[in-house]
Amino acid sequence: MASSNSIPVLLVFLMISAGLSGCFGDDSKELERGIPGGLTLACLSDDKYTSMVVEIDYESGYLPEQTSIDLVKTRLEQVCNKPQGIEILLTETDFGHEGQWSSNDVREKGWNAKLNDPERGSTLYWQAIFPSGQYANDGVLGVAVDASTVAVFGDAVDDAEGPIFNRPSAEEIENSVLVHEFGHLLGLVNLVYESPVEHEDEEHEGHSNNEDSVMYWAIESANIGNIITGQLPDDFDSDDLNDLAGMLSGEIETNNQLWTN
Ligand SMILES: [Zn+2]
Question: How many domains does the chain have?
Answer without folding.
Answer: 1
